Amino acid sequence: MNVFIGPRPVATPFGTIPIRSCLVRTCLLLGDTHAVGWFEQAKEAEEFRDWDTAIALVSAHAECYSANFYAHDHHLWHMDLLARAQRIEELTDLARVDVHARRRLNRLLREASVKDGRGEGTAAG
């Protein structure tokens, strides 16, 4: 059972609001998506590294180059979640037509090469 850990501020498109993390977890466990908004659920899933849930929630509200800047921001968040989940194949598929996916994939691969010691400025061969 979840124990109440008190409110903590969470940034939303509408400002910073306090949420009770146990409420979000309880709603997720019970499958109640109406008690807590999708944004809070996605943030909570991201915090617990539940990439499948976070990606599913965010991608439903994401739109590349949308006139709605929230939808565009959610698209960038979606690309970041895919990279953090190491979904290179999905990013590669999207990168063929989506500049944001391409940039995020390039950054992910660059960070991996630096981590492996094959970073920029090293001699190849």
What would your notes on this structure say?
The structure is a single chain. The protein is mainly alpha-helical and 125 residues long. The model is unreliable at 1-7 and 17-26 (pLDDT under 50). It has six helices and two strands, in the order ββαααααα. The longest helix has 17 residues, at 99-115. The protein has a two-stranded antiparallel sheet with strand order 1-2.
Task: Write a brief structural summary.
This protein is 56% helix and 10% strand.
Keyphrases for this structure?
mainly alpha; 6 helices; 10% strand; 125 residues
> DSSP helix count?
6
The percentage helix is 55-70%
Whole-number average pLDDT? Answer: 79
N to C succession of SSEs = EEHHHHHH
Distance between the termini: 55 Å
Taking strands numbered 1, 2, ... along the chain, how are they ordered across the largest sheet?
A: 1-2
Name the beta content range: 5-15%
Low-confidence regions: 1-7, 17-26
The major β-sheet equals:
2 strands, antiparallel
Q: Please identify the structural class as seen in this structure.
A: mainly alpha
Number of strands: 2
Gyration radius over CA: 17 Å
Globally, the shape reads globular
SSE layout and pairing:
Layout: E1 7-12, E2 15-20, H1 21-30, H2 38-47, H3 51-59, H4 69-84, H5 88-95, H6 99-115
Antiparallel strand pairs: 1-2
Helix pairs in contact: 2-3, 3-4, 4-6, 5-6
